[in-house]
Amino acid sequence: MQKCIIAMFLLVAGLAVSVSGDASAEGWEDAVPVMKAVPFDAENLDGDSVSLRDYEGDNMLLVFFTTWCEVCQQELPMLSENYDFLKDKGIEVLAVNMATAERKDTDIKAFASGLQIPVVIDRDGRIAKSYGVQGIPTTYAIDEQQEIVKPFFGPLNKQEVLKAFE
């Protein structure tokens, strides 16, 4: 865990240094390079297939989590409590469990049973790897064109989610 925190710090520090000269240009403070969301297929907790293509035309949050992550234990119930509100605002939520990082498979269903948001399982780690997930929770705001408009590393709140889709 400590190595993960150090790696995230170094990544953020490196990014801050690399863009500090460019960030001073007017209008570029909040600029995020446009990247396409990586298509995937996974199974939900009932064994049904879920695809990123199922969300074409929708704004969505793609949330990578594990059951033992303390921030995830707070963030996912918050997103679940606000699921209907977010849907009314045109934002779908899909949580991706990083099963390769779980202690036990049985923890996943128990954790997700209280959530209203859909959960898929990344059994072999390929989805997290394709998105470059380094730490958890990692969340991507994806627009209707399936472009990543904002990454979130660590905790987020409802206001940040709404701002990402303005």
UniProtKB/TrEMBL annotation:
Alphabetized UniProt keyword annotations: Disulfide bond, Signal
Entry protein name: TlpA family protein disulfide reductase
Matching CDD domains: TlpA_like_family
Transmembrane stretches, start-end: none
Signal peptide location: 1-25
Cited SUPFAM superfamilies: Thioredoxin-like (SSF52833)
PROSITE patterns documented for this protein: THIOREDOXIN_2 (PS51352)
Domain Thioredoxin: 31-166
GO molecular function, one term: antioxidant activity
